[in-house]
Amino acid sequence: MDAIDVIRAKRDGAELTPAQIDWAVAAYTRGEVAEEQMSALAMAILLNGMSRAEVSRWTQAMIDSGERMEWSALDRPTTDKHSTGGVGDKITLPLAPAVAACGAAVPQLSGRGLGHTGGTLDKLESIPGWRASLSTAEMLAVLRGTGAVVCAAGGGLAPADRKLYALRDVTGTVESIPLIASSIMSKKIAEGTGALVLDVKVGSGAFMKTAGDARELAETMVAIGADHGVRTVALLTAMDRPLGNAVGNAVEVAESVEVLAGGGPADVVELTVALGREMLAAAGMEGAKDPADALRDGSAMDVWNRMIAAQGGDPRAPLPVAREAHELTAPSSGVLTRLDAFGVGVAAWRLGAGRARKEDPVSFGAGIVCHAKPGDKVVAGQPLLSLYADDVARFPRALEALEGAVEIAEDGAADLPPLIIDRVS
Ligand code: URA
After folding, report:
1. Domain 80-310 is of which CATH architecture?
2. 240 vs 419: CA distance, rounded Å
């Protein structure tokens, strides 16, 4: 097979054959297809798209580039959730223990934050002692003992995706729906979960800015899941405003613990419960305990404490606190009509909660706590946002990111999409 023939075929709008796809992905992973050839192919895919058969086969080829985990040794069904990423999205933290408390096993491989969206592993690493890297045998032991595990993916999982994602990042080819869908699904299917719920975020703070693009991504991923025998459903959820009140690392862990204790912000609770019910239904566990009850009766908190301790963390240890704080107050009275997720995400990132390059450390204490959310009445001078950083020099650029992110109308109402916009199955 010749890379140039495959590139020409896609460039000219032909459907790639299974043999062409298998060869291109495997040869690229082995280093036999050059980076410039794969970048031309990725651009041809971005411009001409892929059929369902092509995207499913591409996903399979990426799965086949590495190991595939499996959890048949467990005595309960496995189910997982993937979020396309947002601002204040700490849902995995209360969700995985809540679903485990309802009887399913949740083997979740998570990622770190890059850019303005946070990463679950960065948040959990703010818990003293907690360890993200586990062997497969350790994952199985934590799953057996607690019902849930959240850890980093090992290097053996879909190595083709790791190589291709790095290439897409520098060749303007990240924004291809078939390439995003196959990238996400290859890792989730290789993780070995039997059922999967996708939280596809929509809005300024999300990858997908419009509901139309988010629906197309969701439909593509649901189809890939079905083609690979993983029961998959997707919820399209709002990311025009931050989720919950806390944006950062330790501040999001603290908020998640409030939810696990039966309290916490209404939107975080609503989404945790909705995704939890979908995860149980996708795993064929419709009659199981309700995740809302698991949050109320302390059973989700019990799983959380055991899951954190099983990965070396001390769930009762004080969380890191930033050295410096700055308060942003309401400039006028009225209704908060806008709190832009992207602006708040960039501000938290500039405060040190996120990283600019993969190798950068994050500040666990940095972040933002919102004291009002869109739709709330505010009074001039009241605290709107608390900003936290380890160094006061970070505040001016964070405040710049917030310019225009906050709108208050003297009389009016916030025109917001619902938290759960749509469901795709
Ligand atoms: N997340 C992924 O894992 N892959 C993509 O291509 C985009 C987001």
Report:
1. 3-Layer(aba) Sandwich (3.40)
2. 10
CA of 183 to the centre of ligand 1 (A): 5
Flag whether pLDDT at 115 surpasses 90: no
Considering the segment(s) 324-409 as one domain, its CATH architecture is: Alpha-Beta Complex (3.90)
Least confident of 29-38, 169-178, 182-191: 169-178
Q: Which of 174, 175, 189, 191 to mutate to test the pocket of ligand 1 (most atoms within 8 A of CB)?
A: 174
User: Average pLDDT of the chain?
Assistant: 96
Q: How far is the CA of 180 from the centre of ligand 1 (A)?
A: 5
Residues within a 6 A CB radius of ligand 1: 165, 174, 179-180, 183-184
| Residue 187 a catalytic site member | yes
Q: Does residue 301 carry a pLDDT above 90? A: yes
Determine the pLDDT at residue 15: 98
What is the tens place of the pLDDT at every residue in 216-234? 999 999 999 999 999 999 9
Q: What is the pTM of this model?
A: 0.97
